[in-house]
Amino acid sequence: MAAAEESSADAGQDAIDELGSIRQSIDNIDAALIHLLAERFKFTQQVGRLKAAHGLPPADPTRELLQIQRLRGLAEEARLDPAFAEKFLNFIIAEVIHHHEQIAGTENANGGARAAGSAATGTNPAS
User: Fold this and answer.
1) Cα–Cα distance for residue pair 21/101, rounded to 1 Å
2) In a designed cystine with 52, which of 16, 46, 67, 107 is the match (CB 3.0 to 4.6 A)?
3) What is the mean pLDDT of residues 15-32?
4) Region Disordered: start and end of each range (predicted)?
């Protein structure tokens, strides 16, 4: 019986060790996601400043729809739930638009932007 208990204890420790290893991988991926999001937001801040400087609207619904469709397709290829990918992107887009509105407000307060709504182009916070 002692050998069986020792074997069971070893199996339990093996599972705990494997769990720790898997969780470390998850933690590494989470860190990479945060760094990628930070990089993405650096670029969307540039888009926001460009839009504000030229009086472009903070949102581009046509571009956003194309991005959602594209990312749903990528999610399907990656075997990730496309509905989840869409929710995730919608969350990011909402935050980016909020940033663009803040940037536009700052630019307007400084007299640096034309009136919103003029000369809409293909730039978008989701890009």
Assistant:
1) 42
2) 107
3) 97
4) 108-127
For the chain, the domains span 20-108
Q: Please say if the pLDDT value at position 57 is more than 80.
A: yes
Angstrom CA distances, 117 to 51, 53, 107, stand at 10, 12, 14
- Residue 100 pLDDT class (50, 70, 90 cuts): very high
* pLDDT tens-digit series, residues 81-91: 999 999 999 99
CATH of domain 20-108: 1.20.59.10
Burial category of 114 from C-beta neighbours within 10 Å (exposed 0-12, middle 13-18, buried 19 and up) = middle
Identify whether the C-beta of residue 41 lies closer than 8 Å to the C-beta of residue 93.
no
Classify 27 as helix, strand or coil. helix
7, two tokens: 């074997």
d(CA 9, CA 7): 5
Alpha helices in the chain (DSSP H): 2-53, 61-77, 82-109
